[in-house]
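Format notes (please read before filing issues)

Several people have asked whether sequences and structure tokens are stored in separate files. They are not. Every record keeps both together, in the order shown below: the sequence lines, then the token lines. Line labels are part of the format and must not be stripped during preprocessing.
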Amino acid sequence: MTRTRFSRPAGAVFLFVLAALVSGAPDAAAEGIFWAEMTFLEALEQAGREDKLLMVDVHAAHCMQCKEMDEELWETPAGATLGEGLIAVKVASDRPEANELRQRYPILGLPVVIFIKPGGEELGRVLGFRSVKSFLADADGLREWIDPLPPLEAELEANPNSITHLLTVLEQYIYRMREADAHELLDRIMVLDPEHRSREATKALTLTAKYQEQFRRDWDEALALWKSLVQLYPTLPSVSSGIKGSCTIAKAWDQEQSWIDWICDIGAQYPESGRLHYNIAMISYREGLTDACLAKSARIAIARGVGPKNMDEIAAALGGSAASDE
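Then the structure lines:
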């Protein structure tokens, strides 16, 4: 079912919630939002029967932002107001019922709050939690059944060479599983970044790789994307994601030595990048890999002053010595 609701003016919920936060309005439930005691599938079925919007908060015990969101939003009158008139459920990402959710919607990071139409189609989502104000600003339109994609596409059409706008729309396509459209935007982003310096480009590669690995389970495609991130952006902070992602897949395929040879060749091309070699050494160490070239990366990081105080021990564990032999 496709429709747009304007039962209240856009922004009305946001303004009302902010007023409740300031004044403690008595008609907002002091105990916070009401979470339906049902599974995700039960909630989805009920949303369909009652023609209501479904809001799913995906969380985990280890997620600090999830705890902050519980305390600062969901357990307050603002959270209660946000949940009025819709069905709201919490899903722990490490529980079996989360598998049903993951099979239908890409869950690529926590916390994430997904707004779902009665027919099961995703309307949009809010990623992460920085503050109540920023969360409500993002959730306000969704709460009113307003699809965020059309205006974002219009902005992109007006700014076709803006990497920022391309990334914003690409994210929407990824979460809506519009893979062909997302890849077309990724290609455009890469063309607009010929010198491989854009952090928006690394975000686009990272998101697409996560989607292929964690949602589609296409590890061939994910590995290619992770390797591209490392090869094209070896000195940017996001290189750690590419190193970790490619290493995880290589280990799953029992191809550790092939990965070690590849990553050490990348490191040899950038002997002055202490940050790159630090990431190579630390990720290899955490994954239990050993090789002389990995130890050399640790010693290069030491020489560049990058890494914790026990980098000498890490170098030794990786198969080398603390002495520098660049």
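For reference, the curators noted about this record: The radius of gyration is 23 Å. Confidence is low (pLDDT under 50) at residues 1-29, 321-326.
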